[in-house]
Amino acid sequence: MQVVKMTTVAKESFESSLFTGPEVSLQVLLPDSTEFNVNVVNFGKGIRNKFHSHDSEQVLIVTSGKGYIVTESEKIKIKQGDVVLIPAGEKHWHGATEDSEFSHIYVSQLGSELTQLED
């Protein structure tokens, strides 16, 4: 068994063309998992990722702030305590509102692929 305290996991800068700005950090919670990616992504105010999809389901667990989960047909405001299930293949983005930072844990299948669908 392994217990991880999120407050002790270092935040690493997470620069990628997937994001609309540089104010993003990553906390790798379970680097030794053989089945799951389990990480915290922290977004600065107004920062989001670009439209993308995954080849497996993705779960987001909002840990702080306010953000949005957006598909081609809906935009939903989410906040701490909300849990989102994103089906495999669904085009979506998620990120912070203009007036709030935003953090979520994401869980996905280890080895699953992300396809960026927006420049």
Question: For the residues shown, what is the average pLDDT?
Answer: 97
Instruction: Give the tally of β-strands.
Output: 10
What is the CATH homologous superfamily assignment? Jelly Rolls
> What Rg do the Cα atoms give?
13 Å
Structural class: mainly beta
Q: Helix share of residues?
A: under 10%
CATH topology: Jelly Rolls
The number of distinct structural domains comes to 1
Low-confidence stretches: none
User: What is the highest CATH level, the class?
Assistant: Mainly Beta
- List the helices and strands in order: EEEEEEEEEE
Largest sheet: 8 strands, antiparallel
Tally of helical segments: 0
Percentage of β-strand residues = over 45%
CATH architecture: Sandwich
Shape: globular
What is the terminal separation in angstroms? 41 Å
Describe this structure in words.
This protein is mainly β and 119 residues long. It has a single domain, classed as Jelly Rolls (Sandwich). The chain is 0% helix and 48% strand. The chain is built from no helices and ten strands. The protein has strands at residues 12-13, 24-28, 36-43, 52-54, 58-71, 75-79, 83-86, 92-96, 102-109, 114-116. The strands form two sheets. Strands 1, 2, 3, 5, 6, 7, 8 and 9 form an eight-stranded antiparallel sheet that branches. The radius of gyration is 13 Å and the shape is globular. The model has no long low-confidence stretch (mean pLDDT 97).
Helices, strands, pairings?
Layout: E1 12-13, E2 24-28, E3 36-43, E4 52-54, E5 58-71, E6 75-79, E7 83-86, E8 92-96, E9 102-109, E10 114-116
Antiparallel strand pairs: 1-2, 2-3, 3-9, 4-10, 5-6, 5-7, 5-8, 5-9
